[in-house]
Amino acid sequence: MEFITEYKGREPGIIDLFTTTFTASEGEEEGALIGELVRNLLRGTGEKDLFVFTAEEDGMIIGGIVFSRLSYEKDERTVFVLAPVAVAPEQQGRGIGQKLLNHGLAALRSAGIDIAVTYGDPNYYAKVGFIPISEAGAPAPFPLNHPEGWLAQSLTNRAMAPLKGPSRCVDALNDPAFW
């Protein structure tokens, strides 16, 4: 398995991975929604505000993760939100997601990013170092439907201190449907 960080020129395959994966697990409507989210992230987000990592095997994209900037108005730390994550349905259960997440988080650390947040299954994301946080300690851009899934981790040697100020996500995520 190989990890790839370049996504330019590879957008159709990446979008297809997310569409197919979410269609298989959540249904056609969710697959279309997440496919469109990834399309908008890849095409409408500036390079300094986006990290995309894929796992490939035998020339096929088998996993993908996307991190985009999450800005806090009164906080100088750099924060990126992980959303979405996909592993091809036929490849699930092999640890690909965790390996890809560990790779992506290490790359963010190397790039000087301070904090990673995500919104998902606490049991899954705890395996790669995410811990539950409160909306008071890290305001989300929109009210969370499942606040127990709001998670973060410090990517530095400093403890995770509360983030200050209201938050703002990139345009592609700026929709309450994703929160």
In short:
The protein is α+β, with helices and mostly antiparallel strands. The chain has helices spanning 11-26, 28-44, 96-110, 122-126; strands at 2-4, 50-57, 60-72, 79-87, 115-119, 131-132, 150-154, 167-169. 34% of the residues are buried.
Describe the structure.
The protein is built from 4 helices and 8 strands; from the N terminus they run E-H-H-E-E-E-H-E-H-E-E-E. Helix content is 30%, strand content 27%. It is of the alpha+beta class. The model has no long low-confidence stretch (mean pLDDT 97).
Structural class: alpha+beta
Individual helix count: 4
- Helix fraction bin: 25-40%
Radius of gyration: 15 Å
Q: Mind describing the biggest β-sheet?
A: 8 strands, mixed
- What does the average pLDDT come to? 97
Count of DSSP E strands?
Answer: 8
Instruction: Based on Cα principal axes, name the global outline.
Output: globular
The ordered H/E elements are EHHEEEHEHEEE
